[in-house]
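Async update (no meeting this week)

Hi team, since we skipped the sync, here's where things stand on the single-chain job. The sequence we agreed to prioritize is pasted below, unchanged from the tracker. I ran it this morning and attached the output directly underneath so nobody has to dig for it. Comments welcome in thread, and please keep replies under the output.
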Amino acid sequence: MMRLFSWSGKFPGWRGIARAGLALTLVVCLSLAGTADTARASSLQQLLEQVGPEYGEAYASPFIHAFGPNQNTNLFSTANIPYTGLTFGIGVKVMGTYLNEEDQTFRKVVQIDDLGEYDPGLAGQSGTVVMSGPTIFGDTETDGRVDVFANGVLVGTFEGIPGFWDTRWVPLATPEAYIGGLVGLKFTLRYFPSVSMGDFGKTQYMGYGLQWSASGVLENLPVDFMVGFFKTTLDVENTQGLGQDKLFDSEANSYFLAISKSWPALTLYSGFAIEDSEMTATYYYFDEDLQIGGDSTFSVKGRQEQRFTVGVDLDILLHLNVEAGFGDMTTYSAGLMFGF
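Output:
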């Protein structure tokens, strides 16, 4: 059994080979947003390799809470899709989700049946491990804390890790293309080619969705109506030949209804969506002392389930739209698209 704690007062974690899929994908996504460099990516991987799955899950959960809303943002800017004639466009969407204040810290209590798994001197004693401190988006100057209790008595206090990026704004940017015009249908694609990041694995990112406008059927209404869905996946493949094929597997889904009102060069729109998101992180560990290893996995579901969106689109040579989404979390976004 790996020892998660060292009784020297530090939280050094595992020695040997540890591959933290969560860390890899956090680096990928932050890099897409222009917020991580190579040095920081390496630092983050080393930090997350030092903690157990319980600590890692609590530490990194705010990322998926922001990842889902970001991926489900700016999926439409009008409810009017032609029934005849081709419409197409290509451009970029940028978005940022505002975290809740409580997403910057965590506290997690884990019940342990036998503390001998962590220290032979406590074999046979049950206990409690209390983990607390900054999350990945918390204070970068404050270390986390791990307190170990045996029969209600504090038997050890150890350092965790500090936050990686002290912020409540989590940004993302993605290219987008669409094509439509057949009986009110429009297909949208968000895609990054597969990218190898050396020891960090190989990333795969894609989102796709379909929309249908009722404008051609309900011609006399003062506004346009549209329904649609969108699905996004972001994976990091294992390229080192250890453990599972995927280090990280994430998915976000949105099902939405939208209305809009258009004038020359201006469209106002709003919508309601039901959405979900989830990520699964798998990493491989190896204990040099005991010469054993294996996979460890944890999953985190996104917090946001519903969203109300309001936005405006300006059509002056290019389509520029800005919008705000309100749900369990607040997301702001802008898009710049060239098309007809």
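Quick observations from my side:
Residues 18-102+166-339 form one domain.
The chain has one domain: 18-102+166-339.
Reply here if anything looks off.
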